[in-house]
Specification:
two-stranded antiparallel sheet, mainly beta, 2 domains, 226 residues, Porin, 12% helix, disordered N terminus
């Protein structure tokens, strides 16, 4: 009797615990989980800086976690340099108020940058200093004349390899695409149920050949939920 009674009591406790949980309604996801936004801002790193604009797509996986895809184009006017940041990021809501929700961001992707080597800010003026066909080496080269540009960091200049002064004087374009990690944070400010403004600050760490380059990006996003 004692053993049977203990089993009945145990079963009753299990039912008492499980029944309220089953009776509760399922947690509801965000009312408008998907959003699209326009970005505008500023990016700087290793002695260069430029304005940026782009687009982001986001989906609220839970009340606390948002998955974001973001593309940001960066251009330095007059210096022949362009960049493109493409990342996938997880946004973790730290706190949630009636109209504001600060968050932390971490993710990864790629960073592509292109240089117009013929631009005067790069190597466009070298034709008058060195004859066509002159072989040149990176900044840290061991022999021969070196090329140097105050508007190109060693992270990229050292990867150009040996180059010769073109007979036409046209150096052309050179591009690099590298893996990158991104982290930072911001705050989402709800203007209405559908529209929001999102100031955001992130660091982008680019990796190549055992070296790294860090850029800081500050943007303001204008988003629409649907």
């Amino acid at each position: 009797m004692t053993f049977r009674l203990s089993r009945l009591v145990g079963l009753g406790l299990v039912l008492a615990t499980v029944t309220p949980a089953v009776a509760q309604p399922a947690l509801q996801g965000p009312a408008r989980p998907a959003s699209v936004g326009l970005l505008g801002g500023f990016s700087a790193g290793s002695g260069d800086a430029g304005g940026g604009f782009g687009l982001n797509l986001a989906f609220d996986a839970t009340d606390r976690v948002t998955v974001e895809g973001r593309g940001l184009s960066i251009m330095q006017r007059g210096r022949g340099t362009m960049g493109l940041e493409a990342t996938g990021t997880m946004l973790f809501t730290i706190a949630r108020g009636p109209k504001a929700a600060p968050y932390a961001a971490i993710g990864g992707g790629v960073y592509r940058t292109s240089f117009d080597l013929g631009n005067q800010a790069m190597f466009g003026g070298m034709g008058s200093q060195f004859g066509p066909g002159t072989m040149m080496v990176p900044i840290q080269g061991t022999s021969g004349p070196t090329f140097n540009s105050s508007h190109m960091s060693a992270f990229y200049a050292n990867r150009l390899g040996q180059m010769s002064v073109p007979a036409s004087g046209r150096w052309g374009m050179r591009s690099f695409t590298d893996p990158a990690l991104t982290f930072g944070g911001g705050i989402r400010l709800d203007v209405t149920e559908r529209f929001y403004v999102r100031p955001d600050v992130r660091a982008l760490v680019v990796f190549a050949n055992g070296d790294r380059l860090t850029r800081a990006t500050m943007t303001v996003g204008f988003g629409y939920r649907f």
